[in-house]
Structure formats: C-alpha cells, structure tokens
Specification:
alpha/beta; Rossmann fold; 2 domains; 8-stranded mixed β-sheet; 4-stranded mixed β-sheet; globular
C-alpha cells in the first residue's frame, strides 16, 4: 500500500492542530447555547469507543449498511461498466464496508484502484491491515482533507471514479451545509462519475432514541470523552461525574441531537485558555446533530446539487439507504 501525505504530520502541524482545538473550544464555550465541535470526538480513545458503539445491538446503522452493501456489491459493476475503476473513499474507516464494494468489482474481473482519503495516517495503517491484497487491486492512501485528496487523484488518473461517503456522515451536515458539500463534491468530479452516499432514514423515534442512548452506556462514554480530551490536551478541569449525556430526536429538525448537561452549578477552568467557564445547573453543551432523511429528501438533494439518482439501495425495514448517484454536467444540471 502506497501512502501520499498531503498534510504535514509534524510537531509544527500538531501544535497548529492543538491551537485550533483551543480556539474552537473557546468559541464554543463562549457561545449561547454552549457547543463543542463534533469533529473533536475522534481522538484515539473516542475512536475506540465509537467502534464499540457501532457493534452494539442498539445501534443499527453500521450493521444495516453492511448488509445492504453485501447485497448490492455484485450489481455495482453491472451499473458502472468500466474495465478499470477508481474507488475513492472519503473518511477511510476500518475498510470492512469498502472491502465489500471492492470485492464486487474484483469478482467481476475488473481492475480497481482504491484511494482512501483521510486526515489520519493512523486510519491508513488500519486499512493496510484490513483490505485484502489482490492482483487486480492497487491501494493508494491519501492523507489529506477530502477535496485536496480528490484533486490529487484527479491529477493522476483519467479513470471513471466511484466516490464512497458511507455511514451516515452526510447527516452530520445541516440542510444548508449538505448542499454546499455535495455541490463541491460535484465540482470535483467529471461527467458520469458516480458517488455512493449513506443516508440514515427517518423511522420510529424509539429506534432512533435507543441507538443514540445505547443500553451499555457507550454513547455516554463517547460524549464525555470529549470533556476528558479537553482536560488532557488543554488543561481543563471538567469533572465528568458532574455531567450527563442526553440524546433526543427533534421532529421539527428531523435530527437526533446530542448534549452533555451540567448536573449542578459549577465553574470549569481551562489552563490553555487562561479562563474559567460558568455552568448553571442543567445547562447544556450541544455536541452533534445527526440528520435523518426520507427518500424524497435524498432525491431533492441530488437534483439540487447536480447529480442524478441511479438507485436507492435499502434494507427490508427501510432503516438505512445507500444511494448511488451519477454526475450530470452540462446546460441542464
């Protein structure tokens, strides 16, 4: 596996990341209501806790999407009829779902160039261990921001592309942000390239609530770990025993919302910021939105951002959908 590093992973880079973390924490804790950016969930400890969440019986998205991709992997080479295909994954993950799609093309005797793009080099090393080698498979990891990575691949290959944005990652953007992201993705691709996007569908609220408040407490640990990370990296003195996790579905937003609540009035000092932050009893810190979709919402998104829906692939319960879109460019897009 070849790895190209477009992000400088040096001590200077680490300091810049820590400085940005501090700025974002300051901005979020000074806001009304207080908030922390969900991107900071995923330190090494948070990533491990999230893997535990995805394997829990209450959390349906990961196993449901895996089942969908396993069902449709043989269909994709028939739809995308190319002798050689570049499969590009945004957000590398552990490779188990991308392996299914790669296998579908390899089983159809196609050549695959797999380009996982992630800001974490550690994610690339995990993929190296999880993706099986094959004579018709080349793996080239790109350590970069998504769109920088896409430009890098486009400059080096004229093959048709299938871009994967799996999981329910698109749901972390709000209704305006997701259109901006998808239009930027459209601009990065060529006519007749394809994207496969994972969408968590709207469903019974009890199913959603259980998934984001799992009975083993993994989601609670995941959210509180963000406070622990602030303590460790920025010199905070959050007492996680004085905060509780709360996940709730907002039907007006069509999103799950995650919070931690201060269970008593308190002040928290963060040495890297040289200041304290006051919390009233049961004052919330907003952590994350996870938007849910109807299939009509997915159709609307594709039309607004320059794509054409090829197919929605869903499970029998309609809990989740992987939607295959084709890039359309020209006067009608």
């Amino acid at each position: 596996m070849k790895i190209s590093r477009l992000i400088e992973q040096s001590k200077v880079g680490e300091k810049a990341q820590k400085d940005q973390f501090a700025i974002d924490v300051l901005t979020g804790l000074c806001a009304t209501p207080k908030n922390l950016a969900a991107k900071y969930f995923y330190d090494d400890i948070g990533s491990e806790i999230f893997r535990n969440i995805t394997q829990h019986k209450d959390y349906y998205p990961t196993r449901t999407e895996y089942e969908i991709l396993d069902m449709v992997k043989q269909e994709l080479p028939k739809i995308i009829d190319e002798e050689t295909i570049d499969i590009i994954e945004l957000g590398a993950g552990d490779g188990h779902k991308s392996q299914l799609i790669i296998d579908g093309f390899l089983n159809a005797n196609r050549r695959v160039n797999f380009y996982p793009i992630d800001i974490s080099e550690k994610a690339m090393l995990m993929l190296r261990d999880n993706i099986k080698t094959h004579d018709n498979l080349n793996i080239h990891g790109v350590v970069a921001e998504y769109f920088e990575g896409l430009r890098y691949v486009k400059e080096r290959s004229n093959n048709k592309q299938l871009v994967l944005f799996l999981g329910s990652n698109i749901g972390n953007f709000d209704r305006v942000q997701n259109q901006g992201f998808l239009r930027k993705l459209w601009m990065s691709l060529s006519t007749s390239d394809h994207v496969m996007l994972g969408f968590d569908l709207k469903k019974d609220v009890s199913v959603l609530t259980a998934a984001y408040n799992d009975s083993s407490g993994h989601t609670k640990a995941f959210n509180l770990n963000l406070l622990t990370r602030i303590n460790r990296e920025l010199g905070g003195d959050f007492d996680t025993e004085k905060f509780q996790h709360f996940g709730v579905y907002s039907p007006t937003l069509g999103a799950m919302e995650s919070y931690v609540l201060a269970t008593e009035e308190q002040d928290v000092y963060i040495s890297a910021l040289e200041r304290s932050f006051h919390f009233d009893a049961y004052e919330p810190i907003h952590l994350e939105y996870s938007f849910k979709f109807l299939k009509s919402d997915i159709d609307f998104l594709s039309q607004k951002t320059g794509f054409e829906v090829v197919a929605h692939f869903s499970d029998p319960k309609d809990y989740f959908a992987d939607s295959l879109w084709k890039v359309v460019k020209g006067s009608d897009c």
